[in-house]
Amino acid sequence: MDMELITRVEMPRTKEINHFDRIMVLGSCFAQNMGEILSSKKFRCDINPFGILYNPLSILQALEEIYQNKTYTADDLQYDGRQWHSWMHHSSFSSANVNECCENINSRIAQSHENLNNLDFIIITWGTAYAYYLSDYKEPFVVGNCHKQKDSLFNRVRLDGDEIVDGYVAMIDRLREKNPDLKIILTISPIRHIKDGLHGNQISKSVLLLAAEKLCEMRDNIFYFPSYEIMMDELRDYRFYADDMVHPSSLAVEYIWMKFSETFFSELTKKIVEEWSGIEKALNHRPFDPASPSYHKFFNANSVKYKPN
To answer: Residue 188 belongs to a domain with what CATH number?
Structure first.
């Protein structure tokens, strides 16, 4: 008797993404991982213009600021005695020089704003339904990054599913006024936020799952990719986790990428990815004789052929 000792996750049926598409990836560190893989496979991918963001409303605010092409000034930043930070941005944008911090932020927003109306896909990964509001601010404001500041500055809340859905429906409708063919891929990060407690993490993920389901029902061309379900069911063994027993291991990320490829790539796209992967491996391999004419011929031919746009 044949037995398959695994619970298979039902996948959406669509073959959509190709190398001509323009893609923006927003969200958690899992989104960052997937965006970097897409980029490495020569997809045209704008990865996390604000850096890593975890909760849906911070990601939504990032989209709003890209849409508006917001320009940051010193008034939008805070100084902790060492560096200037933006509450909306990852610390990779921070700087000891206020002008440099603004330049880091504004150049990235401008780049993404320019891309926005020509995008084919936005891939959004929500990490948690818990968010931090600045407790002493001119208006309610959900931060994207607390920058390790003291807890008394923030109020921690669990977002409401309807609040998430209403905000995203309005933003998607606005984006599609200028870009009617824009497609959205939603996914929930497979990383458990155990600081919320295991029960709290499940409640948080449930809010996100229900919000994603409702969005898919309310608007066309919104696809849900079940990365969280793949991790919890198909990869439930702890050998698929990193040493912290929370983050997916490199093997798990590779497996989820494979499932993503099977779901969203046509046979031609998969063939191109496979061909490039072989060339990439050869290019990254240390040559026996880097000065040889044959190696230079191979390197130059493939570097030009697969040079990103």
So the answer is: 3.40.50.1110
